User: Fold these one by one.
Assistant:
Number 1:
Amino acid sequence: MSRGLILAIESSCDETAAAVVERGAHTLSSAVASQIAMHARYGGVVPELASREHLRAVVPVVRAALEQANLTLADLDAIAVTSGPGLAGALLVGITYAKALAFATGLPLIAVNHLEGHIHAVLLNERESQVPPPRRTRPGAPGSGVPGEAEPLDAQSLALVVSGGHTHLYLARPTNGTWHYQLVGRTLDDAAGEAYDKVAKLLGLGYPGGPWIDALAMHGNPRAVPFAFSQIKTKLHLAGKAPRTKAAKTAPIADLDPHFLFSFSGIKTAVLRYVELHDLRPEAEARREALFTGPDAPARPTVEQALAVCEPETLDLIASFQHAVVGDLLKKTFAAAEALGARRILVTGGVAANRALRSRFTAEAVRRSIDVAFPTLALSTDNAAMIAAAAWPRFLAGEFAGAELSADPSLALGR
Ligand code: KG4
Ligand code: ZN
């Protein structure tokens, strides 16, 4: 009898990940090999190096996922893989290996959109807390329909996918076990995580910048610098211009409500102007660069070491930047939930790990009597358990990929 075991592989950016998830609801293993330390030296992801590292890591990471789950390939029911969006060369490594595994084992191959994976990270957490341990789950053959207990109870959610490559708002709803996504908002330029990374870089902090800004912001005054997000001008986009982003292609911007559009490129420039105007740069920034990227930089600087090279004005600037970004995400996400009648908000992606974001979204949800859910910290950033979880409804529906499956760097989710 099938156990509904899916092995998933994720290699869209700078993490090589593999996981085995049972019936989309129970994580048996989740292995992640991060390339962060290597890219940190260059202050960002270098695509060619990413592909090379994925090539090195994919076989041991898949082996680790099977070993952790105490399984062999013969125990599996399907292989799932991220097919986009992401870096073309990086995606191809995972896809090629997944295809080879599927071919060698005769197992079906399931293509998963990375953004759908991030949404299912939250749903996987919910299923893990709802579903009884696997030995006691109701057995069922593939195609027998999604078991009621494995589906979240709520019918419609607004999902904010907020990461280094994406800032997208989707209305997500299941119909007979199949999830449907409608794009309702997105960034016109930089993703929120990209803004975190760029601001951290210009201040001389380490890569990725999000976790550093998260940790340091607690020591500054979030109201010291009143950064404002101006009203988004949609005229250019209405005239047919494409958004300036590397992320997934989406429906025409003109089809989206301008109230739910984001723009994070301006705040980076505003931070830079502030630094120049207030002469925050020279000596402290050099000390930060020495701590994070200098020849004698420690492998893992501590928050205390970082605090020691941040003067109070810089901490205030960091706290104010974060306050503005989280405030903008919060305002537009809750406005969209209200306008669209969503009873629940899911926040997912690397930036969903942010502590200020979590506490402000939680407080606002309480104030508005609406549910908000986040993945665990490990499931917030890139991983393969979320890909296996997103693959489960497709497995049940028999939606399998053919041998022609290829990487789609700008794969869109929903319409
Ligand atoms: O989801 P993810 O691992 O990869 C992408 O699909 O992009 O997200 C990585 C992004 C980076 O921009 C990183 O700076 C940001 O998530 N990030 C954070 C935090 N942890 C990671 N941003 C703010 N606060 C955090 N704690
Ligand atoms: Zn991601």
Number 2:
Amino acid sequence: MMRVAVFASGNGSNFQAIVNAVKEGRLDVSVELLVCDKPKAYVVERAQAAGVPVLAFRPKEYASREEYERMILAELQARGIELIVLAGYMRIITSVLVEPYYGRMINIHPSLLPSFPGVDAIGQALAHGVKVTGVTVHFVDGGMDSGPIIAQQALDIQVDDSKDTLATRIQEVEHELYVKVIGMISAGRIKLEPDGLRVTVK
Ligand code: GRF
């Protein structure tokens, strides 16, 4: 079974969706670790309730991003982690983690990338007046919400959508799409081509 670490910073509804899918037998992976840069985040409570080990840390206690990532990398290697799942982890990842995990680290973003990367993607989409938005799952490179796209799902923006109503629908799509993509990766159905850019799905 593929050994997975989830990285999150806040609420953790995607973490919960993954853990629930595993518990209910809909997803055949083993969630071995939650990595969290905010020790008081709600996702930490979710992990404790689910019996998932937590690696919580305070970035300020480290001299640099690279330094705490080296600490994380050592923990991932000690636990034999094969796939990193970023789920609302609000930090840029450096080459310390990107290099050893390239093609084995994924992120989910609440827009149809490359539109609206960065924070508040849902607000950005509403402010722009686009009529269609969605969710993207992609491999992680060194950029902000960049990297080879694995899967996308579109949804219509309704005229009366507020940020809250749209965010609710987007999160429902996220929970379903992320579980589906993680399942496909663990089944060996998703491959990052040697050029490091294209993703093929079997
Ligand atoms: C999600 O919308 C995800 O796309 C973005 O951060 C949010 C995390 O939500 N990267 P949650 O913490 O999983 O509820």
